Amino acid sequence: MLAAAQVLISGVALGCVYGLVALSFVLIYKATETVSFMQGELLMTGAFGALGLHLGAGWPLGAAALAAVAGVALLGAVFERAALRRAVGRPHLVAVLLTFGLGLMLRGAVASVPAAAQETYRLPVAIDVVQLGPLTLAAGQLLVIGATVLIAVVLALFFRTTRVGLALRALSEDARIAALMGVPVARMHTLAWALGAGLAALAGLLLAPITFIHLNMGLIALKAFPAAVLGGLTSLPGALAAGIFLGVAEALAGLALPEGVKDVVPYVLLMLGLLLFPRGFGAGAAGAGR
Amino acid sequence: MRRGGRWRAALPWPALLAGAVVVFGAEYALSQATLVATYALAGLGVVVVVGQGGQIALGQAALVGLGAYAEALLVAAGMSPVVSLPAAAATAAAGGALASLPARRLGGLYFGMSTLAFALIVEEALVRWESVTHGAAGFAVPALRFAGRAVDTPAAQAAVSIAALIGAMLLCARLFDSRLGRAWRAVREDEVAADACGIDPARAKLLAFVVGGALSGFAGALYAHWIGFISPEQFGLMFSFELLMLAFIGGAQHLSGAAWGALVIVAIPQAIAVLRDALPGEVARAAGLETVLFGVVIVVVVLLRPGGIAGRS
Asked: Which domains occur in chain B, in start order?
């Protein structure tokens, strides 16, 4: 029972990271209707950026993390201005290939640093263990869950109360009418990519205490993708909830099913979810089928 | 007129091969030609599904892998390639049919996601079903044998794969001009309008995946013999995207796009190798150079030449 609770909490923690990356997908998709296949690479770049500033340049960890997130957000904005802008209104595959190509460039750039290509690293944060009654929990997992709650609250406030947040929501409802109402659509697209990229980098920093920092850590985006789709691709709370759901489902599958099955669980659930609720769980409740 | 254009489009290839033989030597040029032709055959499957059928296919490598594993296992069981090659193509075609089933309920991007999930499930199944597939370690595949003679020289391998590619291209040319080819393009341009004109979109998509799967699977079967070793990770997501990039670089809507794209995809690592020898600097030795170059090529092509090399834009 105790073991099950611990597995459950580690599942929730991993699910929070899935959910955050899924949030970054959805944020970009809602505003620009393009799918980003580089979130995993942005996440990896963010983690390595913080690591490089902290260990390499000797910055304090907090400043390094902040600079890494801001830097990756800036990178997202630059990518949008330089290339991704031209994918708006074109077939989905154009954006898929563009973002994948940009992701390859990021990955190649990080891999060119010899120290990054060969080893795995740990950020010296939240590496100890916390005793909570009879439960033994990793501090890193609690940090992730707490940070995710905080980010969700900040995002909810941002989208409900600020002018920019409302403008982004108006844009995702109907881009033309939003433009007629004075929303600067091009600038909002840049902002959405910056936010999405920054969020991915943040997820990378939060993932660092749970797993290690290495070149392939971006593969986690492949599991965040099912979460974004299961959440309906346009629902921010749906993406977060679906991410946590997948994290827990995966952890429980690891407990109950034979080894190796747990890695396909998100995809099997994605297939089932897509077939049963073609528009995501959120829309499935409103009216299943098409 | 069209026929004449088609033959003229084929003209650069013998010249290119002859030039490569002169510059790089026969053995190297022919082994690269084998690789280009096999990649082009696999890419032809993407051209059918993505370029003609207009579907988002993010898991084509899984179909290549199904073909490769089917061929390797059948040959290991002592079957003649006359039986095993069609059987491998049929296995991949069946896989394609399975992958296309969600298209009955899903459209566009959501369907693309389901092909991604399909590919990842297939890859994991190849890793876990150890009693049959030898798991993640993979296994060695013997050389292709036709009528008691092994196809193990670069010239013979190039001949077989180029013949297979030309045969597949002629077949596809016929198919694209047929009722089915028109149905694919109609579904690509506007699914609702196609439906209203009496075309069954679900059937058109199913057949696109069956044909595309058979082509990619056949390529996979040949690939297994040429490389001599297969493991599940070869047919992962990266390869799926490589095939997509191949089709887009060459021109996904054109038959010859697969060949041009394959040439570029095979040439990039070779060009890097040449560059490494030529430049003594630290930059050329960096491990990520190849990845960066792949990224740059795909981004530049998508931005500056959206129709691909073979496209007219």
From this structure: 2-304 (1.10.3470)
Its ipTM equals: 0.84
- Residue indicated by tokens 């070793």: B229
> Global pTM?
0.86
The interaxial angle of helices B237-250 and B257-278, nearest 10 deg, is: 110
3-class SS of residue A212: coil
Note the helical H segments in A83-184.
92-111, 114-118, 139-161, 163-173, 175-180
Query: Cβ contact (<8 Å) for B124 and A260?
Result: yes
Give the pLDDT confidence score for residue A125 in this predicted structure: 67
The pLDDT tens digits of the residues spanning B221-249 come to 999 999 889 999 889 888 999 999 899 88
Using a CB-CB cut-off of 8 Å, the residues of chain A touching B288 are 107-112, 117
Best mutation target, A264, A265, A269, A276, to test chain B (most B CBs within 10 A): A264
Type of residue found at A32: T
Question: Using 50, 70 and 90 to split pLDDT, how confident is the model at B56?
Answer: confident
CA distance A31 to A26: 8
How many residue contacts between A and B have a Cβ separation below 8 Å? 131
Give the count of beta carbons closer than 10 Å to the beta carbon of residue A79.
Answer: 25
* Chain A contact present for B272, CB below 8 A: no
Average pLDDT, chain A: 85
Tens digit of pLDDT for each residue in A62-94? 899 999 999 999 999 999 999 888 888 788 888
Burial class (CB in 10 A: 0-12, 13-18, 19+), A132: exposed
- Is residue B284 predicted with pLDDT exceeding 70? no
Encoded amino acid at A135, one letter: L
Q: Model confidence at A55, in pLDDT bands (50, 70, 90)?
A: confident
CB contact under 8 A, B287 and A112: yes
Are A96 and B108 within 8 A, CB to CB?
no
Arithmetic mean of pLDDT, A156-182:
89
Residues B57-84 have pLDDT tens digits of 898 999 999 999 999 999 888 888 888 9
Which chain A residues touch B110 with a CB distance below 8 Å?
A: 229, 233, 274, 278-279
In the three-class reduction of DSSP (H, G, I as helix; E, B as strand; rest coil), residue A129 is classed as strand
Pick the residue of A104, A110, A112, A234 with the most B CBs within 10 A to test the interface with B by mutation: A104
| Euclidean distance between CA atoms B42 and B37, whole angstroms | 9
CA angle A52, A53, A56 (to 5 degrees): 60
Rounded to whole angstroms, the Cα distance separating A23 from A241 reads 10
- Buried b / exposed e across B32-53, counting CB within 10 Å, b at 16+? bbbbbbbbbbbbbbbbbbbbbb
Alpha carbon B16 to chain centroid, angstroms: 21
